[in-house]
Amino acid sequence: MPGLIKAIEPFRFYTRLHLSELTGLRASTLGQLSDMIKQVSGSCIYHHTHRFLQQHQYLSPEPPNDFAYWVSKVLGEDELGERLASIDTVQFSTIRRLRDKIVATIEDYLKNNLSAKLKFAGKGEEFHFIKSVSFVLPTNYIAYNLREFTDIVKNITIDSIYFHIFESRLRLEKKTNDFSNWIETSIGDKELSDKISKLDPYTHTLEDLRKTIIKIVEQKLRD
Amino acid sequence: MANIEEYIPIVGQPIMDDLKLLAEKLKGKVIQHINSTAVGGGIAEILSRMVPLLRELGVDTRWDVIRGGEQFFEVTKKFHNALHGNPEEIMQRDFNIFMETSQKNIEALDIHGDIIFVHDPQPIALIKKKTGNKWIWRCHIDVSNPNQRVWKFLENFITNYDSAVFSAPSFSQRMTIRQFLISPSIDPLSDKNRELPQETIDSVLKKYNIKKDKPIITQISRFDRLKDPVGVIEAYKQVKKYIDCQLILAGGSAADDPESAEVLEEVKARSEHDKDIHILLLPQDDIVVNALQRASSVIVQKSLKEGFGLTVAEALWKSKPVVASNVGGIPLQIKHKYSGLLCHSIDGASFAIKQFLANPEYAKKLGQNGREHISNNFLITRHIREYMLLFLSLYHKEDVVYL
């Protein structure tokens, strides 16, 4: 029974709760936006590229990062908005590299669209920089095998799933998500580990992601 | 009053587990809330629910109210309007009155918390009593464009706090202390928001002589110029030309708002004895508010300025289509054309109301989306969680905190 193979190390589920810290910094033009993106802390970049995942657990008509939303909806630069929205976040293993890509995308666009430099947001519509402060706590849930793992994933908060899939990989700069890492190193199932690490979590809602992970692991348990 | 376990069917056991984990980390700390009124208005309403729930979770939470006479509250109302960006003539005498009452409160109030949580400008000067404890200033007001004289006056106090909290990103200022974004919330089990039997709704309508024979447009709020009740009447009149409907303007008054009687008279005058306009000055009765919201076809919140606009969250929680101004915390609750309709003017409001009344399926869909959004982001359990994180942040300066 693959589901009952005892893990070398059990998996301890953590949860991550967050507070939004205001910086008082605001941008009215694309030039200001780009300059500030270069200066603000990594926690700010992380906030504006991941906020939507937790705030809109069900699909809603918002692009997947705040920069794209503001550029399209407030400045009316739909093409740049689309370019920013389609940055493939999962390809970046550090916030620094993600930040560089966002800046390069805006600067490239400004080079070829001089009129975009003149656009500015009206009063009250500026882009406000916010940073994410994370609090990481161990939960009481521990899995010793894959069967227990799926049972817990079914019931744990989406904040916990979020932490192990998104935050530990990008913000804490681990190479893969925690689930894949545990399945490979403690259960010894590289194939199953790869299946989960190949998911693009940014194209799922968190509830959908939960269901997909459960489905992949349960399929393995049935095989 | 509901106990904490009763929220589990609404938010789920794991969310409750998280709250208990955080409460554990605050064991031994005393939290002391201080504001200016025990009844009426959004702050008192939130605290009256929040304080007992935090206690049930094991967080030692107390709540004190400052004292002030008529003159003091007239001054703080002027401050309030000025912070909202309204033209107000603020004299040195006003600052003197503010400081005299503040000094009395500084002398009279027993400050005993490890964390002192001060709400809005009225009690702000209490910071002079700061010793070794932690102090938070919670601003519930839209200060995106404040009167600089009043703001600078308050800033002298704010900079001595450890952290400040605002309800919307646009309210943040360049400051030397940490500032956090925490939205207020609604309580799904309170009398104002819980499910009601149809008989209760019908009996409230009967009591106020409102018939169900035509669509009902409702704005629930205090009679305050910043809520623009006269603008709502104008919008209703424009809609009425095309769709036969009725309007309810309902609200109470708060002990710290001396202006409401005057505004109520203006509203009555503007209604010109139209029998389809129901102006209800309500006593504090949450079941009545709940019933009126549930009986409505469209809910309006046409504020000119808004700290947050909890009536929007209340209406969306009841799956109602909402037309609201794009001000303060309202755009956090409504994504235009997805979970409601935002407006910037009387004409915009009347056009949006007509859209809803003429397209019930569209109205229903937006109301359902709105309920989902409130359920995920604006219930009291999220608010309690963020307050506990805020308390913990006072002892941790880093961006990733391991507890």
Oligomer: heterodimer
Strand adjacency order, main sheet of chain B: 2-1-3-4-5-6
The secondary structure category of chain A is: alpha+beta
Rg of chain A, please?
Answer: 20 Å
Order of helices and strands of chain B: HHEHEHHEEHEEHEHEHEHEHEHEHHHE
Going by helix content, strand content and strand pairing, the class of chain B is alpha/beta
**N- to C-terminal separation of chain A?**
9 Å
Q: Residue-averaged pLDDT of chain A, rounded?
A: 90
| Fraction of helical residues of chain A | 40-55%
Largest interface: A-B, 40 and 42 residues
Shape of chain B from CA axes?
globular
Instruction: Tell me what portion of residues of chain A adopts beta-strand conformation.
Output: 15-25%
For the largest beta-sheet of chain B, the strand count, sense and barrel status come to: 6 strands, parallel
Q: Mean pLDDT of chain B, as a whole number?
A: 94
CATH top level class name of the largest domain in chain B: Alpha Beta
User: In this structure, how is the largest beta sheet of chain A organized?
Assistant: 2 strands, antiparallel
Instruction: Give the strand line-up of the largest sheet of chain A.
Output: 1-2
Q: Residue ranges of chain A: pLDDT <50 for 5 or more in a row?
A: none
Number of strands of chain A: 2
Q: With helices defined by DSSP (H or I, 4 residues minimum), what is the helix count of chain A?
A: 10
